[in-house]
Amino acid sequence: MSEQMPVEMVCNAFDISRSSYYEYRQRRKHVDVERLALKAQVNRLFTKSRSSAGSRTIKGMLNDDGVVIGRFKVRRLMSELGLICKQPGPHAYKQATVERPDIPNHLAREFTVDRPNQAWCGDITHVWSGQRWSYLAVVLDLYARRVVGWAMSSSPDADLVVKALDHSWEQRGQPEKVMFHSDSNTVSAGYF
């Protein structure tokens, strides 16, 4: 640069100090062995994770190996190496396009009702109960928007669904002509 223009003039034009310019030139000539070793470790860990680890995960892995480093430095090293973590996207739920003729949709997603015990809906979920998974079947009255019955079991079977419906039916005074809606869950679709 000094062959064409004086260093001082160019540094003033870009509003940087001459010492910064000379430090940069010196750094460019110097190979940072420690940084290259860190890059190699980051690349190895990223490959080991099958491209799924991000800067936080790799930082944790490096810390476990005894390397003291921050996640922003790891992020910078990943950027220099062109490493981008690949995380699975959200689950795409399949929307039913055709109604099943054996299970007619009387409710047609109209969840507003005029009176109690006109329409109920239900579902099953799993709950961690300390030592194992338990299954909870819940029945809601669409008018009151409240739970009218429920049952728990160690397995998501037809008995669980029947218990939840029986509980609801007894709690609400054995109503007649109640329409029931359930999602397409295999167990509840067959019995709810």
Attribute tags:
single chain; 192 residues; alpha+beta; Double Stranded RNA Binding Domain; 2 domains; four-stranded mixed β-sheet; 16% strand; elongated; disordered C terminus
Query: Helicity range of the residues?
Result: 25-40%
What strand order characterises the main sheet?
3-2-1-4
**End-to-end gap:** 81 Å
Q: What number is the mean pLDDT?
A: 84
Helix-strand topology string: HHHHHEEEHEH
Bin the strand percentage: 15-25%
- Quickly count the domains: 2
- The rough form would be described as elongated
Q: Write down the Rg.
A: 32 Å
Q: Give the uncertain stretches in residue-range form.
A: 188-192
Estimated structural class: alpha+beta
The total strand number stands at 4
Oligomer: single chain
Strand count, sense and barrel status of the largest sheet are: 4 strands, mixed
Count every helix, treating DSSP H or I runs of 4 or more residues as helices: 7
What does this structure look like?
The chain is an alpha+beta fold and 192 residues long. The chain has two domains: 7-81, no CATH class; 119-191, Double Stranded RNA Binding Domain, CATH 3.30.160. It contains seven helices and four strands; from the N terminus they run H-H-H-H-H-E-E-E-H-E-H. A four-stranded mixed sheet has the order 3-2-1-4. A hairpin with a 4-residue loop joins strand 2 (133-141) and strand 3 (146-153). It is elongated, with a radius of gyration of 32 Å.
